[in-house]
From TrEMBL:
The chain crosses the membrane at residues 12-37, 43-64. This is DUF418 domain-containing protein. Keywords: Membrane, Transmembrane, Transmembrane helix. It comes from Candidatus Yanofskybacteria bacterium RIFCSPHIGHO2_02_FULL_41_11. It comes from the Bacteria.
């Protein structure tokens, strides 16, 4: 049971980080498309761009265990692998 739990936990967090990185890429591209005046207000484009960049760097930092995540959230930050 413990082995199954550990496999599920690791695969879940890997899936979560990869989907978060892809969400960040999607929102960044969508935000840039909106900023190029594709029928949506400019403030929405800036908001999507900022959210996308933040999501990308948050999940990228968690997946690769980068230093800025420990600097922002401490050594024992909110989601552990």
């Amino acid at each position: 049971m413990n082995l199954i739990y550990r496999i599920f936990k690791v695969s879940f967090f890997i899936f979560l980080d990869i989907s978060g990185i892809l969400l960040g890429v999607f929102l960044t591209v969508l935000g840039l498309a909106v900023l190029f005046n594709w029928q949506v207000t400019n403030w929405m484009g800036w908001l999507l761009l900022i959210i996308g960049i933040c999501a990308f760097f948050l999940h990228l930092g968690h997946y690769f265990n980068l230093k800025y995540m420990r600097w922002l959230f401490g050594n024992n930050y909110f989601i552990q692998k």
